Amino acid sequence: MASRKDLESPDFYTVGWIAALPIELAAATAMLDEEHGEPCNFDQPHHDTNIYTWGRIGEHNVVITSLAAGVYGTTSAATTATCMLSSFPHIRIGLLVGIGAGIARPEEGRDIRLGDVAVSQPEGSSGGVIQYDLYKAKAGNQRESRAFLNRPPEVLLKALARLQAEHERKPSRVSEFLAQMAKANPRMVRQRQGYVYQGVENDRLYKATDPNEEIRREPRDSSEPEIHYGTIASGNTLLKDAIHKDRILEDIGQECICFEMEAAGLMNTFPCLVIRGICDYGDSHKSDQWQRYAAATAAAYTKELLAYIPTQDLQKTQKAINILKDISGSVTQIHSITTTTAAVVEGLSEDSQYRKIKEWLSTPDPSINLNEAIEKHHEGTGSWLLESEPFNEWKSGKRRHLWLHGIPGCGKTVLSATIIKHLYQQLNFSHAVLYFFFDFTNTDKQSLNKLVRSLAMQIYSRCESSRTDLGKLFSLCEEGGQQPTFKSLFATFLQMIDHLETIYIVIDALDECNTRSNLLLWIETLTSSRPAGPQLLVTSRREEDIESELKRWLCPGSHVAIQHDPVNQDICAYIHKRLQTDREFERWQSEPSVQNEIETELMKKADGMFRWAACQLDMLQKCLDLRMLRASLRSLPKTLQETYARILASIDRNYQQYAIRILQFLTYSTRPLTIQEAVDVIVVDPSGDPYFDPSLRMPNPQDIMKVCSSLVSLVIKQDSARTETFMELQLAHLSVQQYLKSRIIGEAFPRGMATIGEIFQTSLREISARADITRVCLAYLECLREQGAHRELKAEFPLAEYSAQYWMYHARTVETEKDVSDRILNFFDHQSQVSAVWIELFGERRWRDGSMPTPLYLASLAGLQHTAQLLLKKGADVNAQGGRYGNALKAASSQGHKAIVQLLVEKGADVNNPTRGLYYGSALHAASSQGYKDIVQLLVEKDADVNACSGGLAGGNVLQAASSQGHKDIVEILLANGADANAPGGGFDYGGPLEAASYEGHKEIVQLLLVKGADANGQGGYYETPLQAASSQGHKEIVQLLLENGADINAQGGDYGSALEAASYEGHKEIVQLLLQNGATVNVRNMAVLSKRL
Q1: How far apart are CA 255 and CA 977, in angstroms?
Q2: In which ranges do the ANK repeats occur (predicted)?
Q3: Domain enclosing residue 1003, as ranges
Q4: What would the pLDDT profile of 469-480 be if each residue is shown by its tens digit?
Q5: Is-contact 777 805, C-beta < 8 A?
Q6: Are both 248 and 358 inside the same structural domain?
Q7: Per the domain annotation, does 768 fall within a domain?
């Protein structure tokens, strides 16, 4: 530690560190890089009785304090924190660092040991800490913890994410900092139970049910502490023994990793992260032996974490004292909110509603893409855009729209992430930043529908006043029992953004959306929907369809080309940084002239392509001497295609078949592979015996990166519940996929390697690739016949779920190949254990009503026409029951497989089969709802009942289904073939076809139905009348149309009571005026709504 010095003012201290015990304070002080004296202008308030230690760690000035000796618990911690903030008002973040009791569950994969470190990390509704001694009564004298506490500041969570990612690649520096501590403070390690590792023989875990029976655990390879992230349980109650601990955990009802006794007093009063070294297991065997070492490991981890918080980010973080505007300093007042039962119940209700709506919308998480892009961002790059006039005009509101476009590989996604990060740092709380990344590697992020769902959910989570709008749509969809139509979801989204003063929307990679024409139309509609709509920024390649559409309404000044010169400056900075920091380039660090040579040669050909520069650096890392390096620099490829060909050509011959297999899956699959799936992909041998031998798996899964080099990337992701992280293998860039799907793979290969190029070209053609993928998946599934339960099976055989869900998708293209066809037929013996396991993984067993789905049903559902023909030839029952859709005909109709529908009908399928699956009452109902016009026409010609009513989840009758979904051409076919325009719906929300079309805003269908005799006053359903349905959703033209056709303006009933009350309640002023002008009656009840809402 450097010599002491004094800072001028306490305002220089931005990090507050609280240690409960003297040993924790000692460990914290030992981690300081520099110790300070009392600040010169420090005037400690009289009510602040804390004693402080000051110092510096890295770039941050830190003030440390502890609780009074012998005092512990949440209240004392809250008092200490409140006093600290009053004395140091410039503190931005807090750190509660010390010891805790580990919650080890080795049988569940949570192998926490003494000396390890537990870190609070938000999960779901929890901010990372839950108070276990505040309860809500439950039936049966049970108790349930209800104290979910605040999240740590965003700057800490971002640092956590960066550090976790770093630890995936490199070991933690905790041991390094402990060694430095020991060298600087030898007394700390000389004590008998000092700040050193206490030995594996002193780390024993016992069963809760038998405190004398030790749990055997596999020895670790190293004594270095491991880091665990999750929820920490905090309270004032001392743990008596393991049974007491387990009872508390049962009450909490949430997975936790650690117990401690101060954090719950801080999370709502002091924006902090909780870091605990594990000193015991909270059982009857606990002792003090590990406490000093645990305090030291927690402090060392904290020091490592601080290095990942840039000072500029910390300065932009709101002061902790300002976050806590409603805190008066009184501990009683601080805790009063947590003891107000009504507030707690209300908060939990909101959490529950949030989870339900999020699950209902099934929104993809764009923060994953954002974090990946931010990790790739190099400090200082992208500043040319942030400082540009068009961008600043857009940010200030002078310009409402921006389109950034550039060549493949120029860094558009990283630039988008830079913009989002900049907006978050610069804007105040009255502004909202929404974002979405279209992603070619993830089908869940390739559609307009998913974009709007994601944006709506982002507003819901950020803007409390907007939640009513989405909550109403959720209620209208039978509390999530039905999915919203796109039109109703978009209308709700527009209502939600009205609650925000200013809203910024950043959408990256329009060219990676699979519904581009609809997306471009939606963007135009969004920008013209409000006089002062959202500030919209989009990025894409400069592709003809995108450019022509945007040019129609976007002014030329809002087209921002990503120019080569400023991007080249960023590329130069990126190259320079990698040459200085990449371990593989350390060999040249003592030769700056060589580094300059690399930089110069790369910049000659970079031509604005970040991706190109990154690939060259990856290849140059392999050059071990100057001769190899210069040879590589002289022969640098000119284009990305040549670059990718070089990478393929350089793959070791021993790895070529592995590389081909991996690239086949990643190029033609609809999602990436987990690293465990990828490992099993290359082990499968469809012509071997056995097909799959687990003992042949790679011992180190990450070695798979050596197989495909720069063509793939390994990304750390979290599961949907955010409880576990996993590693995912994906193609490194869209340009890689485009190259591998092209016909020029062999042409781009270096001279003399044409044969290898042809091997890759042939293997990566779609037919060859999908055939190989189908063979691998079926072979893998064949090996599961003797396996056990679903969950255990997926854990032991990671590729099982992918194989079950996607083999038919690939087989559809190649099922006529003789060996593939034979494999499919052999596999389709549904009596076999193999097929039963597959159906369980595929998800059909969950929907069955007692009978298993037949092979014909499954082939029809998947679109396997050739297989269906062969099964019918072998005598398959065309009307057999089973599966979620009930029979093969409904399954094929629901998916739009016209050729299979034709085949099944020709073979005697009953078009009016009364079999009721979970969805749709008939094949015609399925096709009408999904918009498959040709199938509707075919079924009608085969005498399908056009007035059949469904009892399944889709609800309603055939005409209602087509009307609600806006399928005008199908409505015309149904009406022309005798459909009753006034038939009662029988569904969940709509009284009939006219009410359905009126609610969804389909004006042309409303007109068509009225012409065909639909009753404008038809009753039933959620809204009772079409007029009330249209009024509630703001469809003014439809309201006018219904009035012109005799709709009763004062009809009573439905959810709102009347059309006037519906329009008033929803705030549709123009419709209210229209209704009043046409004689709507104002009474006491609707007058109250009018005055309140308008």
Answers
A1: 58
A2: 851-883, 884-916, 919-951, 954-986, 989-1021, 1022-1054, 1055-1087
A3: 955-1091
A4: 998 888 878 777
A5: no
A6: no
A7: yes
